[in-house]
């Protein structure tokens, strides 16, 4: 995941929102192509008796948190994102919204369109976040 996300290329004039979209597009595409990954990441509660598995799932979640947090900080520093809400809270809102979208897709038996729904959620969050 780290290699995949760090290798995402965006244009030099890309906004923080464009970068965030690219990260989540990659993530949603991976989930769509390999749904078993979602089952592992979203089953963190069953791993609480296995310290090694708990640590791995935690590392995956922390990695995504770091990317979104860095994006949010960049967006606020460059004036692309509003500063009405702090970086930590925005990071939680973004990740929480995307997590709920993925969970709904998983529970539906992968019948909904994860790419479409995830993109719509992220676009909505960015409309609230971006300064025009």
Structural features, described:
With 132 residues, the chain is mostly helical. It has one domain: Tetracycline Repressor, domain 2, CATH 1.10.357. Helices cover 70% and strands 0% of the residues. The protein is built from six helices and no strands. The chain is globular and about 45 Å long. The relative contact order is 0.16. The model has no long low-confidence stretch (mean pLDDT 89).
Q: Short summary of the structure?
A:
The chain is mainly α.
Low-confidence stretches: none
The largest pleated sheet is described as: none
- Overall mean pLDDT stands at 89
CATH class: Mainly Alpha
Distance linking N and C termini: 32 Å
Identify the CATH homologous superfamily: Tetracycline Repressor, domain 2
Write the CATH architecture name. Orthogonal Bundle
Strand content: under 5%
Helicity, in percent?
over 70%
- How much is the radius of gyration in Å? 15 Å
Shape: globular
CATH topology: Tetracycline Repressor, domain 2
Give, in order, the helices and strands: HHHHHH
Structural class: mainly alpha
In total, the number of domains comes to 1
> Treating each run of at least 4 consecutive H or I residues as one helix, how many helices?
6
Q: How many strands in all?
A: 0
